[in-house]
């Protein structure tokens, strides 16, 4: 069989597991889902951790920051590694090594040991970069926004499911007679085991590109960018591109805020509305559950705007989604009624995740020779946003006021997104590639449910 790195899929056949493109599609989102499960598995159980370890508000704030801080550096590193060694091996190592601190956090017996293990767990947040990289090399421009948004969105769904499921796993151990202190520790072993097993499955179930792994393609196509020695030079070019940093800011304003809400939502509903941890976890989980379709919508609209108005259209859609997110967060921060708080949170969640999908409908077109580097830097922006927001929750400011400040900042970021520009040559190149894929009169993205 002829090996070619260019046979990208032009549609998504959800129930087709035979092609490498669709196997990658499904295994990437499942792997990312499990990473989210391990990353934020402890968040809905923090009520019990706070009680057992006698944590202060400032210490909880530090833990929130730690959970996302190391991911900044890991995303930068993993993006370069994807360009160098390929997404298959990168994901395998991250899943297997990441499972260790997830299971080990149950050994924490003080604020310091818990903080350090929470910091280590944050490394698995770099999985997002591999997910987006692997999807980007598997799908064509007409569908790339939808594919990226769907794999990331269904992976992010793990953040919502975790809020609901971890209290149930915790309750399972309590029902068997374990104390609350032992139960939250045992509960964290479950996502750790799942991550370890997924690492093995990913290695044997995927390949780097539609045409094979990096090693195979380099032997057949010496000009193929993946794994070339100039990957560091390409990384340096990416760093100099102002568009990358504008998208870095945009992603910080959406994914960074999602991470923040995942960390504080359960505590917010317990303290603000006097709910039980189990009930608060269920409500907080609604925020993440919107990923089932919301991030996909962001990618779908990004593709549609791109097909009709080119790369500039994708940027305009991103700006609009960010503006909607900021306004909705301001409204959510002012809600004193539980019903209105839940309702506004759901609408806010819709715009957060559409903004994420919109961002990564733009990312693959910034520098095609270094998709991993661009994805890594932009992805790290999400964690910088989360760290920045985390500082607001560790001081004297109330959670409500902190959310209000963040909402205003997100709204302002929408205007900066409009500064992302593409040259006429870049627009023309993508337009010509799109015309080869989609005949005139049939310009539409496809998300189908059967092969």
In short:
The protein is built from 19 helices and 2 strands.
Number of strands: 2
Tell me the strand order in the biggest sheet.
1-2
Give the overall pLDDT as a whole number.
87
Q: Name the poorly predicted regions.
A: 1-5, 444-451
Q: What would the CATH topology be?
A: Growth Hormone, Chain: A
- Helicity range of the residues? over 70%
Largest sheet: 2 strands, parallel
* Radius of gyration computed on alpha carbons: 21 Å
Given this structure, which CATH class is correct?
Mainly Alpha
Provide the descriptors you would attach to this structure in a database record.
mainly alpha, Growth Hormone, Chain: A, 19 helices, 2 strands, 1% strand, disordered C terminus
Write the layout of secondary structure elements.
Elements: E1 12-13, H1 20-39, H2 46-53, H3 57-85, H4 87-104, H5 111-121, H6 127-138, H7 144-175, H8 180-187, H9 189-205, H10 214-220, H11 231-239, H12 242-252, H13 255-273, H14 277-289, H15 294-333, H16 338-359, H17 371-392, H18 399-417, H19 424-437, E2 447-448
Parallel strand pairs: 1-2
Helix pairs in contact: 1-4, 1-6, 1-7, 1-9, 3-4, 3-5, 3-6, 3-17, 4-5, 4-6, 4-9, 6-7, 6-17, 7-8, 7-14, 7-15, 7-16, 12-17, 12-18, 13-14, 13-16, 13-17, 14-16, 15-16, 15-18, 15-19
Structure, described:
- This protein is mainly α and 451 residues long.
- The chain has a single domain, classed as MFS general substrate transporter like domains (Growth Hormone, Chain: A, Up-down Bundle).
- The chain has 19 helices and 2 strands.
- A two-stranded parallel sheet has the order 1-2.
- Helix 4 (87-104) packs antiparallel against helix 9 and helix 13 (255-273) runs antiparallel to helix 16 (338-359).
- The model is unreliable at 1-5 and 444-451 (pLDDT under 50).
């Amino acid at each position: 069989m002829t090996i070619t790195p260019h046979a990208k899929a032009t549609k998504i056949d959800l129930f087709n597991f035979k092609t490498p493109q669709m196997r990658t599609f499904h295994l990437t989102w499942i792997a990312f889902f499990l990473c989210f499960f391990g990353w934020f598995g402890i968040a809905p159980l923090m009520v019990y951790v706070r009680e057992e370890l006698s944590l202060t508000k400032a210490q909880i704030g530090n833990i929130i920051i730690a959970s996302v801080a190391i991911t900044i550096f890991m995303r930068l590193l993993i993006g370069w590694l994807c360009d160098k060694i390929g997404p298959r091996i990168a994901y395998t190592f991250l899943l297997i090594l990441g499972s260790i601190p997830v299971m080990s956090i149950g050994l924490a017996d003080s604020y310091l040991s818990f903080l350090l293990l929470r910091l280590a767990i944050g490394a698995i947040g770099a999985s997002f970069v591999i997910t987006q990289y692997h999807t980007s090399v598997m799908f064509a421009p007409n569908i790339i926004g939808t594919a990226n948004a769907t794999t990331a969105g269904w992976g992010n769904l793990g953040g919502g499911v975790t809020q609901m499921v971890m209290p149930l796993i915790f309750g399972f151990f309590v029902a068997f007679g374990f104390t609350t202190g032992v139960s939250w520790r045992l509960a964290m072993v479950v996502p750790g085991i799942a991550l370890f097993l997924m690492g093995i499955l990913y290695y044997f179930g995927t390949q780097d590109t539609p045409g094979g792994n990096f090693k195979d393609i380099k032997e057949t196509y010496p000009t193929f960018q993946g794994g070339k020695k100039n990957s560091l030079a390409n990384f340096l070019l990416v760093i100099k591109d102002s568009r990358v940093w504008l998208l870095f800011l945009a992603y910080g304003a959406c994914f960074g805020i999602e991470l923040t809400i995942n960390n504080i939502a359960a505590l917010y509903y317990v303290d603000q509305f006097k709910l039980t941890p189990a009930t608060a976890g269920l409500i907080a989980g609604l925020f993440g559950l919107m990923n089932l379709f919301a991030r996909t919508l962001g990618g779908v609209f990004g593709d549609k705007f791109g097909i009709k108005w080119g790369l500039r259209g994708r940027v305009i859609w991103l700006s609009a989604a960010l503006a909607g997110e900021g306004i909705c967060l301001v409204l959510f921060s002012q809600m004193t009624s539980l019903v209105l708080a839940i309702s506004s949170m759901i609408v806010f969640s819709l715009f957060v995740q559409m903004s994420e999908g919109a961002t990564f409908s733009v990312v693959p077109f910034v520098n095609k020779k270094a998709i991993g580097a661009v994805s890594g830097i932009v992805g790290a922006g999400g964690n910088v946003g989360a760290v920045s927001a985390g500082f607001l929750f560790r001081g004297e400011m109330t959670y409500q006021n902190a959310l209000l400040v963040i909402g205003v900042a997100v709204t302002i970021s929408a205007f900066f997104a409009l500064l992302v520009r593409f040259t006429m040559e870049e627009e023309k190149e993508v337009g010509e590639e799109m015309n080869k894929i989609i005949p005139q009169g049939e310009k539409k993205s496809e998300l189908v449910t059967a092969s």
